[in-house]
Amino acid sequence: MPRFESLERGTRRARASSVRATPSRRGLARLAAALCAALPAIALAQVKIGLVLSLTGPAASLGIPARDTVALLPKQIGGQSVEYIVLDDASDTTQAVQDTKKLISENHVDAIIGSSITPNSLSMIDVVADGETPMISLASSAKIIEPVDAKRHWVFKTPQTDAMMASAIAAHASAHGVKTMAFIGQADALGETFYTEVAKFAQLHHIDMVASERFNRTDPSVTGQVLKILATHPDAVVVGAAGTPAALPPKTLRERGYKGLIYHNHGVGNNDFLRVCGADCNGTFLPASPVLVAAQLPTDHPAKRLALDYIARFEALRGAGSVSAFGSYTWDAGMLLGNAIPIALKQAAPGTPEFRRALRNALEATRGLADTNGVVNMSATDHLGLDQRARVMVEIRNGKWVYQPN
């Protein structure tokens, strides 16, 4: 009996010792929490990129290839997973503002790509500045990034500016003996800013502007405007419009027997425009992204290799002949972020104001980055960073883009 009691007491002591050595459930939870807290916050974060694109409405032909390109963007950058959140602004400025607010306040994105068009991009500037969130526009107007003031401090873009393209038009027109020029453009910020640049460079080349007309994206006819233009007998007409609505002026000019030169801006660089305009656009010209004629470029063009790579990726996804400049602008925005995010990650964790500021600074510090449109060299006063190598003159011939060497 005494031996049994001794054994029982020993067993109780062993159990007590075991209980003391084994952590409780509460203790395990505290231990897990401590371990998580000890891990670097950056390892648990996810980079979020919002996109505001014109997927419906008059500018859908610009937004859809941008959306399709999102599927090709990297899902991991700098060792962090990347989520892309795409919203449709319906080609409407009010919706673009609402989408931007949602991405910043609800989705807590680290950067925004968009919008597809100038008026919407301009409407988004106040929102991204208030939210201190970097934005990369896919629209053309230089007003989106110039001047780099307190608000545009947060805004960048990938497409060539209207000034770059207007200067190319004026130079080409002058070389072809043009002395008088008319303009017809959209009745919005794109049309107004492009006209300003066309008129400025026309004057530099001693070309007289003899008419300036406007139309709305949704107008079914521009006959009245075209008749006024034809009454001035211009040697050339410049169309300042984007997407499929830009086909209406050249079609009407041809129907009315106009034989002079017709120029477009780079807002028509997609196959939907070619389809809608048809034979009426044969023999017309535009300064465009190198992507449209990548295979025809000289081998030493800085954009050729990367443009061909993007085309191969996109056409593998969407089919032969599906590529457009507007998809490439989205791809280039992805390249900018792919270059800047690893730099920002060294300073702060995604999802924080500090990370967004570091990302903005890294974007502005981009130097020597080759992309599908040229070579990017940003600065505190230049949030595009492209030079004249980023534009090429193109003729529309038999429904195809044809490179025009200088």
Automatic annotation (TrEMBL):
Q: Does the keyword Signal apply?
A: yes
Leucine-binding protein domain: residues covered? 46-392
**What's the protein name?**
Branched-chain amino acid transport system substrate-binding protein
SUPFAM superfamilies reported for this sequence? Periplasmic binding protein-like I
CDD domains, alphabetically?
PBP1_ABC_RPA1789-like
Family assignment from sequence similarity: Belongs to the leucine-binding protein family.
Q: Which organism is it from?
A: Paraburkholderia fungorum
Superkingdom of the source? Bacteria
Q: Say if the entry is tagged with keyword Signal.
A: yes
Q: Which residues cross the membrane?
A: none
Keywords in UniProt for this one? Signal
